[in-house]
Every structure is written in C-alpha cells, then in structure tokens.
C-alpha cells in the first residue's frame, strides 16, 4: 500500500490484496495440474511425457517445500526492484496503448512472490490435509503478526525496509528446514539483502512517477529538495521551488510580492506550503484572499481550523487577532516536521492548541457551541478536483453535522476550495452541506448560505443562524473592494454573480440557486452530468463523480481525454475485467487438464460443484468482511495504515486461533457454526454504528483494543470453515485440494475490487450484508459435501 501510494497514487492501493491473491490462486492451479499429472497412469511412455511426469512428481514432493521458501525470498526482492523500475504509469494510458499491457505485466511481477509462498502452503495442505487446521492456524498467526509489525518498520524508513525483512524471513525458513545446498544459497542471499539495504539506497527508494507534482516542481530552475521524512501513513518531502506560491484566489488588486514559502509534498503529490511568518508586514496578502471573508465580518473570535496543512488558514486567524485558534491536523508527521524543523520559519503556528487526528473526531471530545468560526480549507498548492476512489470521511454529511454543531449561536463554517470546471466538487459539497442542515432539522438553509468567487477559488460560508443584514453588507463590501463576485446569498440577482470575473455562462450561480431551492434540488442532482449527490460515512467517496449512464457525455465534456477517467478511478471496472479474465483462466485450466478430468469422473458431480461453490463463497465472504472493516475503521483510527494493520491483525490472529481450537474441539467444525458466523456478520453491521458512537471519543490505544475485541468472535469463527473443508476433501477427494485452494484465492482476488465497486453505489453496509449471504451459501454447500463424502 505504501509503495503504491508513493510510486503511483494512493487510490491504486485497493489492488494490493487482489494482486497478492492472484499469485495465490495461480499456485493452486499449478499444483492441481502437476499433482494430477504425477498420479496419472498414461500408457504412452515417450521420453517427453516421462520427463514431465518426473518434474511433476518432484514439484509435488515434500522435499521441494524449502525450495519454495527460497524462491519466495528471492522473488520478493526481485519483484520489488522490477516494479520500481517498470515503465507502467497510469497517466500515460491516455496516449500510450502499451500501458494496458504494462499494467498486466506490472500486476504479474508483483504477484510472483505470492505464487511461491502459496505453493509452499498449498503443498503442506496437499501432503498433510489431516493437519490442515494446525497449518492454517500457523499461517494466519504469522500473517497477523506481520500486519502489525510492518507499522514499526515503516516508521523507520520507506517501504523498502519491510520488503527486505520479508525476503529475509522467507530465506530464514529455508535455513531452518532446507537441505545443505538450499541453506548455503539462503545464507548468501540474506547477506546480499543486507548489503543492498546498507549500500543500495538509490536502487531501493521508491521511484516517483514523473507526472507527480513533486517531480514537476523540482524541475524548475533553482528548485531544491531539502529532506525526506517517512512514517507508516505518509512520506513527506520538504523542498524549495519557484513554483511554490500559495495564495488561493488572491485578489487581482493585490500587487505586492508574497512572502517566502516552503513546499511540503505528501507522497509526492499532495502539496501544501509553509509561509514565512517572520515579517508581519508581508502577511497583508492574507486579507486579499476569499477565505478571509469570515474574519472580516467578525471580531474577537474563537476559531477551529480543520486540516490546516502548512498552516495558511491558521496564520490567517492569527493575523486577524482571533482570541483563540485551535488546529486539528490529520497528518501527524506533517505537524511534527513543522513543529521541529520549521517552527521559527512558520512563526510557531503549531506551538499550542494543536492536535492530531480527524477534526470531526476531535469535536466529539468537546462541548457543542464552542466556536465562532470553523475554517475548512480544501485548497493546497495542488489544484485537483478529483481524488478517484479514495475514501475521505472529512467531507460527508455526518462530518458536516459535527462541524455545524460545534458552532456558537452566531457562528459560521468557512469552506474554501478551488474552482475546477466543469463544476462538480463545489456542487457536491453544497449538496452535502444542505443535507447536513436537513438532518439538524433545518429544511430551508437559503438564508444561512453565502458564497463568493474569485478567479480560481470560491468560499462558502454556512451560518448556524441566518445571516443578518449587517453581516451581508460586510461580505458585499469585502467582495466588492477586492473585486470578488458574489456567487450566492438569499435574494441575490443574477447580474451580481458575474460582475468582475466574467464567465461565458454562469453555471455556478444557476447550480447554487437550484441546489439551495428544495423543490428544484432533487431534479437538478438527478439530471446533472456528474454524480453530485451527498455522500455519507457509509460510502465516503466524495471525489467520485462518474455516472455510468453519462460516460459518453462526460468523455465529450472532458475534451475526449481518458486521463480524467484514470484520475476519477474509472480504472476500477477496467482492472476488474482483467482480474475476472485472469480468474476464469486460473479456475478453468485444471478442468481442461486430461488427468484432472479423468480423476473428476470418479467423483460424484455434486461433490465437485459443491466444493467449487463452498470455497468460492468462503473467499468472497472473508475478503468482503475484511475489506469493509478496514475501510470503515479508517474513520475511527484516523489513517488507512492503522486501520488496515489493526483489522488484519485482529481478524487473522483470531481466525488462526479458531482454526487451532477447532482441531481439538471437532464440534466446532459443524456446519451450524457457519450459520452462526453468517448471523454474527449481519448483526455486527447493525451494531457498528453504536460501537462507532461510543469509541469515537476514546484515545487511540483504547480504540485499537476495543475494535480488536469486537471482531475477535467473528474472526474466530472465520478461521474454521476453510481448514474444515480441506480436511473433509483430504479423506476421499484429496486431488481436489489444490483446485479448491485456487478457487478460494480467485474469489479473494475479485472481492476487494468488487467491494469497492459495490460500496460506491450501495455503501459498505451492503458489502457486509453480502459477506453474510456468502457464508450462508457456504453452509448450504458444506451440507452437500458432507452428504456425498
């Protein structure tokens, strides 16, 4: 995930699990074919068939298992190095057709280590099916410990260190269990890894796409890269560049130079800046930004700035002499860098009243009616209107309810964002804000909304109570003196909205009027080219605007440019198609193999069909649950790395425990417990909002502990069905084990991508419900297998 976020973009991280499971599924198919071939009694003993049979017998022997560990260790490092230098770049897809092939090869390269590690584990299941539960338990325990351990490694350096550690662990396994030749090779490779770690920084460091913003800013004359910082949730590069100039919507009447600014790039692409605050006279430009409107009409205020980044809006609040300025920044590393290394340069803006985390969660710890202004800057130096399929819980209806509740009686929200035609971000934000007002019992918010527009940004002010005539007069005077246009206020005339900065058509004015009018809102949202409907915590993809039925019209509107669809995450169905084709091939190959077909004729048809359905539903159910919980808990744990690691650790270790305990207590292998698991998942989906409500105000360690405890019962039950099925097959249908493994893995490949696709339209609660249904189908299939075995 971290490698993808740095090397490509964060919204490609959803592919990680699918790529891994693609390798795992391929291993099952390979083992199914060669194991069947090794047992196939073919009367034609020509030299070629004899060689192939001998190779098959060797691959299927227990003695080769340490070799799989060796090849896994080697391929981990080689695949990382290859992927880091591979010419795949999603931006090039819009003009280079070869990138489609590169995407396939890129995924293949990264799946190779999982192929060899899966061959090792699947071979163990094949040879020791009677001990399937012990093997599965050990596998899940190691995976769970690895998921949490990687966080510590990522805090030391970038993703290259955990890659080397994973490689060394596999090679160490060879040293423990392999023959002398394997051991010598493993020791030499371990030393090679150590040498690469100490002397190969330039080779190992993730290569940034040349189309990332940091790469472009460093091309300017006089640009300087200063330092790189790493954590488990982001990489931040501090740099100087002539291109670093942040003053969103600066009035064209302001003619003086800006103060010196230092750039900070998060994962090479999300850019924010720190402004030199040493000379107060140079900060006068702050009063010429549209985002200063709220400060111009208020005095002696208490301010909360949500995600100030480099601190421009926090600096603005201090410039206007706010009584108190509270700051909540979601990226702890960014905050630490500014505090430790740029404190004097920044004027100590993060010296006090500063917290890390999500602003909405911080508000849950405070009393309501606390702030005069809640400032939400959505502007960085990077002008971007789309974040693809990245989840973001800061701009949902639920979040805006929190922000509005935090305001004093006469308080207001100030939301600033860039104008990126065609309008979509602005309209979705307004629709979401209006929906939050409605949830608070305010059906008509027309008097509570004011919007002003500059040449490249706009500011929306949303008040808890209707704006007074005095406040409106102050905003109009401020806008007119800076040559900003009034975009909306209750009673605005059309000619007021396009007075200074003229657009050919004033779509923004018409859109605001239609959205704020309750009678026109639904029709406007339904008929609009893009999806601008309000987003909630159940489907927090505020940057996804595509309507499938409008693909052609959107393509035409965006200048016949496919790059837009790449940014928007429209690679999702494209990648899904590639995965579906790959999985069909992986599952079908054993069926067209003559030795396997011959073997299948000796089995009852219902056993084969039920086995396929059973292991397919287990893969789908397991991954749907896992992905849903990882995504939903980003809100509570406040960054994806923590959520993914904690949920993986809790689910995998508890599943491992369930597998181990069921070995001793055979009653747990009853199909009845799969029904219990199905019901438990369904119940958890309805219990989760209650859990969220009570945990959001707790500290991080308490959240981690209680969240882990909440999923342990489900995880415990999830660890039983898979080894139970393998043990059952091992009694009379052992040759089906590798194929069952492949089918399970293939549906695990599809599940992460499918879960995101479903969540985009129906939400993650629906994904959990489907997981419950999948386990119920697994229960029905298991009954059929037991009946005919």
Describe, in plain words, how this protein is organized in 3D.
This protein has about 800 residues and is an alpha/beta fold. Helices cover about 60% and strands about 10% of the residues. The strands form two sheets. The protein has an eight-stranded mixed sheet, with helices on both faces. A four-stranded antiparallel sheet has the order 1-2-3-4. Strand 1 and strand 2 form a beta hairpin. The two termini are about 40 Å apart.
Task: Chart the SSEs and their pairings.
Blueprint: H1 2-7, H2 15-39, H3 47-59, H4 65-85, H5 98-127, H6 132-156, H7 160-177, H8 180-199, H9 201-204, H10 213-217, E1 224-230, E2 235-240, E3 261-266, E4 270-275, H11 293-296, E5 302-306, H12 312-319, E6 324-329, H13 332-341, H14 343-346, E7 354-356, H15 359-363, E8 371-377, H16 397-405, E9 407-418, H17 425-439, E10 449-453, E11 457-463, H18 469-482, E12 485-488, H19 507-516, H20 518-527, H21 551-557, H22 563-567, H23 571-592, H24 594-600, H25 605-632, H26 634-637, H27 640-664, H28 672-695, H29 700-718, H30 721-732, H31 737-762, H32 764-787
Parallel strand pairs: 5-6, 5-8, 6-7, 8-9
Antiparallel strand pairs: 1-2, 2-3, 3-4, 9-11, 10-11, 10-12
Average pLDDT over all residues: 86
Sheet having the most strands: 8 strands, mixed
Number of strands: 12
The poorly predicted ranges are 381-388
For the biggest β-sheet, the strand order reads: 7-6-5-8-9-11-10-12
Distance from first to last alpha carbon: 42 Å
Number of separate helices: 32
Q: Structural class, from secondary structure content?
A: alpha/beta
- Cα-atom radius of gyration: 29 Å
- What is the strand content? 5-15%
Indicate the multimeric state: single chain
Helix content: 55-70%
What is the overall shape?
globular
């Amino acid at each position: 995930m971290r490698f993808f976020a740095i090397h490509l973009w964060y919204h490609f991280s959803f592919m990680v699990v699918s790529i891994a499971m693609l390798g795992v599924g391929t291993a099952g198919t390979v083992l199914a074919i060669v194991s069947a071939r090794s047992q196939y009694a073919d009367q034609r003993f020509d030299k070629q068939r004899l060689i192939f049979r001998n190779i098959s017998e060797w691959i299927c022997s227990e003695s080769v298992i340490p070799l799989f560990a060796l090849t896994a260790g080697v391929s981990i490092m080689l695949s990382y190095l290859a992927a880091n230098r591979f010419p795949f770049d999603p931006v090039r897809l819009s003009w280079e057709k070869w990138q489609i092939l590169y995407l396939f090869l890129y995924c293949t390269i990264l799946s190779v280590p999982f192929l060899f590690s899966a061959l090792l584990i699947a071979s163990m299941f094949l040879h020791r099916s009677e001990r399937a539960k012990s093997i599965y338990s050990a596998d899940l325990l190691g995976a769970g410990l690895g998921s949490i351990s990687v966080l510590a490694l990522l805090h030391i350096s970038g993703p290259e260190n955990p890659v080397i550690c994973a490689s060394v662990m596999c090679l160490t396994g060879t040293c423990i269990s392999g023959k002398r030749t394997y051991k010598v090779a493993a020791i030499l490779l371990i030393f090679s890894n150590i040498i690469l770690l100490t002397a190969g920084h330039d080779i190992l460091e993730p290569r940034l796409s040349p189309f990332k913003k940091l790469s472009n800013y460093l091309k300017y004359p006089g640009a300087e890269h200063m330092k790189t910082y790493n954590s488990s949730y982001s990489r931040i590069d501090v740099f100087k560049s002539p291109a670093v100039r942040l003053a969103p919507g600066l009035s064209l009447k302001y003619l003086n130079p800006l103060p010196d600014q230092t750039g900070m790039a998060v994962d090479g692409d999300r850019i924010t800046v720190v402004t030199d605050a040493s000379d107060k006279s140079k900060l006068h430009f702050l009063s010429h930004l549209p985002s200063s409107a709220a400060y111009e009409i208020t005095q002696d205020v208490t301010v909360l700035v949500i995600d100030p980044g480099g601190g421009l809006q926090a600096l603005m609040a201090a410039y206007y002499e706010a009584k108190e300025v509270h700051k909540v920044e979601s990226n702890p590393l960014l905050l630490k860098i500014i505090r430790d290394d740029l404190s004097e340069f920044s004027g100590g803006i993060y010296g006090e009243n500063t917290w890390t985390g999500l602003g909405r969660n911080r508000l849950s710890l405070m009393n309501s009616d606390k702030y005069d202004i809640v400032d939400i800057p959505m502007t960085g130096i990077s002008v971007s209107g789309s974040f693809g399929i990245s989840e973001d819980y800061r701009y949902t209806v639920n979040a805006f309810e929190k922000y509005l509740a935090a305001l004093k009686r006469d308080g207001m929200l100030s939301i600033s964002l860039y104008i990126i035609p065609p309008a979509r971000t602005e309209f979705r934000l307004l629709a979401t804000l209006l929906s939050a007002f409605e949830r608070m019992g305010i059906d008509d918010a027309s008097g509570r909304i004011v919007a002003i527009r500059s040449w490249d940004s706009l500011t929306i002010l949303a008040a808890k109570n209707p704006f007074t005539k005095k406040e409106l007069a102050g905003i109009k005077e401020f806008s007119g003196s800076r040559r900003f246009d009034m975009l909306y206020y209750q009673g605005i005339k059309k000619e007021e909205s396009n007075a200074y900065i003229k657009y050919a058509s004033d779509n923004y004015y018409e859109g605001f009027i239609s959205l704020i009018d309750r009678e026109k809102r639904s029709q406007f949202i339904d008929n609009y080219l893009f999806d601008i409907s309000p987003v909630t915590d159940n489907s927090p993809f505020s940057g996804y605007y595509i309507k499938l039925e409008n693909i052609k019209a959107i393509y035409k509107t965006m200048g016949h440019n496919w790059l837009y669809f790449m940014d928007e995450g429209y690679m999702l169905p494209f990648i899904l198609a590639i995965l579906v084709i790959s999985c069909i091939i992986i599952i079908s190959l054993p069926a067209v193999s003559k030795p396997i077909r011959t073997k299948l004729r000796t089995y009852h048809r219902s056993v084969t069909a039920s086995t396929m359905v059973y292991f397919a539903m287990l893969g789908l159910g397991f991954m749907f649950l896992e992905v849903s919980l990882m995504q939903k808990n980003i809100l509570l744990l406040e960054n994806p790395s923590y959520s993914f690691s904690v949920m993986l650790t809790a689910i995998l270790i508890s599943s491992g425990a369930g597998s181990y305990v069921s070995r001793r207590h055979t009653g747990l292998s009853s199909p009845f417990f799969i029904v219990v698991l199905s019901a438990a998942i369904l119940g958890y989906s309805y219990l989760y909002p209650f859990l969220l409500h009570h945990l959001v105000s707790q500290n991080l360690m308490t959240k981690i502990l209680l969240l882990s405890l909440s999923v342990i019962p489900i995880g415990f039950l999830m660890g039983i069905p898979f080894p139970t099925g393998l043990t059952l097959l091992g009694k009379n249908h052992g040759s089906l084990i590798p194929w069952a493994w492949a089918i399970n893995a293939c549906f695990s490949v599809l599940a992460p991508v499918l879960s995101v696709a479903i969540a985009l339209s129906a939400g993650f609660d629906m994904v959990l419900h489907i997981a419950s249904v999948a386990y119920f189908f697994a229960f029905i299939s298991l009954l059929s297998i037991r009946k005919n075995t």
